[in-house]
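[Discussion] Sanity-checking designs against the backbone

I'm trying to build intuition for which residues belong where. Below is a structure token string of 365 positions. I'd appreciate it if someone posts a full sequence so I can compare it with mine line by line.
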């Protein structure tokens, strides 16, 4: 289940965050010449790239208003991100620099009280100019314009409640940026798995004034938390196995007491202490094989049923899916099997050692 939720969250974030992102090492604006962009396009492994500018803005619709992250994008953005696939109203269209259009997150759409696909009223938009002084002059340091909407998207609340996407030329004009100034570059790779290999080449080509981040580095906190959650659950379940192992210790200890005469017979027939210890150790490992095997087969069956028939639903109607997602990974089965065997070996060791160290006596009382 944790694998399923992790895969779901990563797929949602990958719809908005690119395989690799280039941003300024300091500040919010970087400069890229046409020569640099040509080199970037010709780098092996690069599928496509989009130029972006991002800044906080105030959207106003009469009495309704909302602070949003305004993201200006070029025509390649639809090929770099998955936003277009998550449009729920209207059509993907950011307009032009002279007639821009807004694609709103569903949360922003609700906050400012519009129907994004109907485009009935123009919204007022306020943006701070990049040349603004520390002492803000409302008359000179704020750009004001009107803009219409074209569509709304639903990806994940972190994006739906904060972002509005529009034409990059419009945003650059409002911010007062020059032709070669951008907020960043978002890159789609031919093979996303090669991001770590391509990153050093990009960094070397651009220099230290640019920050190159893979998708993991853009969301390092999120991925670290998801990984930590899985290991915490593994630790808790391992602790349960350790507690359950005391039953095995008790059962094998009772078996040793019951089989004292049989142990003595084996010893008389030539069985040494190591041989006797191996017998009881094998008994414990056999229990682990049977119990662990049946448990994993049962888990495999339940997971298959959930994947194919969605037996366990998610309560509430605000989720993107209405069932618990499940993803099977071979490494998890191997980790569980290894954990069960290690705990079973340790639990079997004490009783088997006790059996081997017993004094052997065939005389009856």
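Best answer:
Here's mine. Compare freely.
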């Amino acid at each position: 289940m944790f694998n399923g939720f992790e895969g779901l969250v990563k797929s949602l974030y990958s719809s908005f965050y690119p395989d690799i992102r280039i941003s300024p090492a300091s500040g919010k604006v970087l400069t890229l010449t046409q020569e640099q962009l040509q080199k970037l396009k010709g780098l092996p492994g690069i599928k496509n790239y989009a130029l972006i500018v991002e800044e906080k803005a105030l959207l106003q619709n009469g009495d309704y208003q909302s602070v949003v992250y305004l993201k200006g994008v070029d025509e390649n953005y639809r090929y770099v991100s998955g936003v277009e696939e998550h449009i729920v109203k209207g059509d993907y269209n950011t307009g032009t620099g002279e007639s821009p259009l807004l694609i709103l997150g569903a949360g922003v759409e609700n906050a400012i009280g519009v129907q994004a696909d109907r485009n009935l009223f123009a919204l007022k938009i306020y943006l701070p100019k990049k040349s603004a002084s520390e002492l803000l002059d409302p008359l000179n340091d704020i750009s004001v314009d009107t803009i219409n909407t074209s569509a709304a998207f639903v990806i994940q609340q972190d994006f739906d409640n904060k972002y509005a996407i529009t034409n990059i030329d419009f945003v650059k004009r409002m911010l007062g940026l020059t032709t070669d100034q951008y907020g960043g570059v978002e890159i789609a790779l031919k093979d996303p798995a090669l991001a770590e290999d391509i990153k050093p080449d990009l960094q070397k080509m651009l220099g230290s004034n640019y920050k190159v981040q893979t998708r993991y580095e853009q969301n390092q906190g999120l991925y670290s938390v998801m990984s930590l959650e899985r290991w915490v659950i593994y630790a808790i379940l391992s602790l349960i196995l350790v507690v359950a192992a005391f039953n095995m210790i008790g059962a094998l200890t009772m078996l040793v007491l019951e089989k004292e005469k049989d142990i003595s017979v084996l010893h008389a027939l030539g069985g040494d202490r190591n041989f006797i210890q191996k017998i009881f150790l094998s008994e414990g490992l056999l229990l682990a094989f049977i119990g662990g095997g049946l448990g994993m087969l049962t888990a495999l069956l339940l997971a298959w049923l959930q994947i194919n028939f969605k037996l366990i639903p998610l309560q509430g109607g605000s989720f993107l899916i209405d069932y618990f997602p499940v993803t099977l990974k071979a490494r998890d089965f191997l980790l569980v099997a290894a954990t069960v065997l290690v705990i079973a070996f340790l639990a079997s060791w004490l009783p088997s050692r006790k059996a081997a160290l017993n004094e052997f006596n065939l005389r009856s009382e």
